[in-house]
């Protein structure tokens, strides 16, 4: 016999206390609805997480805000939080495919004029496609199937014979955003990524896409929303079974049972199958969810006694086509005398280093950063790897995307409720796709749909 469960009743039960779930619950509660939020972890915030590691305060999860992320910016302001810009003064470093290191200024990488021209030309094509197709219903565009049945890798080579230009463009979508090899997702998925950020040009501009951070960390936004909800948020309560029908839902979680009229699944689509459904979800949902998968990226934090790179006139911003660590940024915290770098090891590079021991992996990763910024990068006082792929309740990063053909085949159904069950997460957002902003937009959107259905 198991221990007795707490019995709770609500208008809406929300599964997941990340930004999407908390925004949904907050919106509903403010409209007078009774909500219960069930969170599997012992904390709120989902893929945002700020913590102290070996005496260093780190943003382990999502952290940046770009100027177009108005939902997030408005919430941060409403909560009375301050933001600060990422440090970007100084020159950047570029490492070419052959390992040659160049210090440079300006927006263009220090590559041949022909490659710069090709990057600009392909960027213009992607910007036009992003404008034409848009983020809301890319699957409905006449070109959707054509773009969705060719990998982004092969689409790029069909546009240009300049391999360096193709690699540079691919790095920003594959390594930096979807965190999958460019052969593993479609050109349509890449266009959605660009459209969700306003344009592909925005994704190329690190000063735009990685503009500012929240003083106190991005997780503090979720903590503030959870504080408003008080006892409605239940931690350490993974939902095991969701029974549903015309009369509502019953969520069976560890230690608690919630009966409600509706449910919102505010977790990554890759976790939907962790729940048993009574009756089972429709065939379409079973298929849809199997065609979405997480990317893989290691977010590497290296903390030093000072931001030594600034002494050499460097911003800390580094890019390397084909390098182990393809991106590096100055991630020094607000008011901190110490210097922090953050680097990213994506997709197949992450696969490779995870076959190594922890010490070997650290040596290789810091060695890659040192190739950009010099031997002092080897002497980190604190070193930490955010490995969301090993997180039981996430299983990858940054978010889920469709396999080849999946977006045009299933995209129209990913946000469609199933009876009383609704879906909200950054993985299925349009604007702000894969970002905290998109999670908040989806949370609000689903809550408003539920509220509208009550009065219709």
- Return the CATH class of the largest domain: Alpha Beta
CATH topology of the largest domain: the name is: FAD/NAD(P)-binding domain
Radius of gyration: 22 Å
Helix run count: 16
Range of helix content: 25-40%
The CATH superfamily label of the largest domain reads: FAD/NAD(P)-binding domain
Shape: globular
| Low-confidence parts | none
| Sheet with most strands | 8 strands, mixed
Which CATH architecture of the largest domain would you pick?
3-Layer(bba) Sandwich
Question: What fraction strand?
Answer: 15-25%
* Number of structural units classed as domains: 3
Class from helix and strand fractions: alpha/beta
Mean pLDDT: 97
Distance between the termini: 44 Å
Question: What is the β-strand count?
Answer: 22
Can you tell me about this structure?
- The longest helix has 21 residues, at 113-133.
- α1 links the parallel β1 and β2.
- The chain has helices at 19-30, 70-78, 113-133, 144-148, 152-159, 163-178, 187-196, 200-204, 206-209, 219-229, 283-290, 308-311, 347-353, 358-373, 406-410, 436-455, and strands spanning 6-15, 35-38, 50-53, 56-59, 64-65, 83-85, 91-95, 101-104, 212-214, 233-234, 239-245, 248-253, 256-265, 276-278, 292-294, 297-304, 314-320, 327-330, 339-346, 382-387, 400-402, 421-423.
- Helices cover 35% and strands 24% of the residues.
- It has 16 helices and 22 strands.
- The radius of gyration is 22 Å and the shape is globular.
- Strands 1, 2, 10, 11, 12, 13, 14 and 22 form an 8-stranded mixed β-sheet that branches. A 7-stranded mixed β-sheet has the order 8-7-17-18-19-16-20. The chain has a 3-stranded antiparallel β-sheet with strand order 5-9-6, covered by helices on one side.
- It has 3 domains: 6-47 and 218-281 and 418-455, FAD/NAD(P)-binding domain, CATH 3.50.50.60; 50-68 and 81-88 and 209-214 and 296-390, Polyamine Oxidase, Chain A, domain 2, CATH 3.90.660; 112-204, Guanine Nucleotide Dissociation Inhibitor, domain 1.
- The mean pLDDT is 97.
- It has 456 residues and is α/β, with parallel strands linked by helices.
């Amino acid at each position: 016999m198991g221990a007795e469960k707490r019995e709770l009743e609500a208008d809406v039960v929300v599964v997941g206390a990340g930004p999407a779930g908390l925004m949904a619950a907050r919106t509903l509660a403010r409209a007078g609805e009774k909500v219960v939020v069930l969170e599997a972890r012992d904390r709120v915030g989902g893929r945002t997480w700020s913590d102290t590691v070996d005496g260093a305060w780190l943003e382990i999860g999502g952290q940046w805000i770009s100027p177009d992320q108005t939902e997030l910016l408005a919430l941060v302001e409403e909560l009375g939080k301050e933001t600060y810009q990422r440090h970007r003064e100084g020159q950047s470093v570029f490492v070419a495919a052959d390992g040659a290191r160049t210090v440079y200024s300006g927006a263009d990488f220090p590559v041949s004029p022909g490659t710069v021209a090709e990057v600009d030309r392909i960027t213009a094509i992607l910007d036009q496609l992003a404008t034409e197709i848009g983020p809301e219903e890319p699957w409905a565009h006449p070109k959707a199937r054509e773009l969705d049945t060719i990998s982004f890798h092969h689409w790029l080579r069909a546009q240009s014979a300049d391999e360096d230009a193709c690699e540079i463009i691919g790095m920003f979508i594959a390594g930096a955003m979807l965190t999958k090899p460019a052969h593993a997702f479609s050109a349509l998925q890449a266009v959605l990524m660009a459209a969700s950020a306003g344009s592909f040009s925005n994704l190329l501009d690190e000063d735009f896409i990685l503009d500012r951070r929240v003083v106190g960390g991005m997780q503090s936004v979720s903590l503030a929303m959870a504080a408003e909800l008080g006892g409605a948020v239940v931690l350490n309560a993974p939902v095991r079974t969701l029974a549903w029908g015309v009369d509502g839902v019953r969520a069976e979680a560890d230690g608690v049972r919630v009966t409600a009229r509706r449910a919102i699944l505010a977790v990554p689509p890759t976790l939907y199958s962790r729940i048993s459904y009574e009756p089972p979800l429709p065939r379409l949902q079973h298929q849809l969810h199997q065609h979405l998968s997480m990317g893989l990226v290691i977010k590497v934090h290296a903390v030093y006694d000072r931001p030594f790179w600034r002494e050499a006139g460097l911003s800390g911003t580094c890019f390397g086509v084909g390098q182990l660590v393809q991106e590096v940024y100055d991630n020094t915290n607000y008011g901190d005398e110490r210097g922090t770098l953050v680097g990213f090891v994506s997709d197949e590079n992450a696969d490779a280093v995870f076959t190594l021991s922890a010490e070997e992996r650290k040596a290789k990763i810091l060695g890659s950063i040192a190739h950009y910024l010099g031997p002092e990068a080897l002497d980190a006082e604190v070193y930490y790897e955010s490995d969301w792929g090993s997180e039981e309740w996430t299983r990858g990063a940054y978010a889920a995307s469709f396999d080849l053909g999946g977006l045009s085949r299933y995209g129209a159904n990913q946000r469609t409720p199933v009876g009383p069950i609704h879906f909200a997460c950054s993985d299925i957002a349009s604007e702000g796709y894969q970002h905290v902003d998109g999670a908040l937009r989806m949370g609000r959107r689903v809550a408003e749909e539920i509220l509208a259905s009550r009065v219709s």
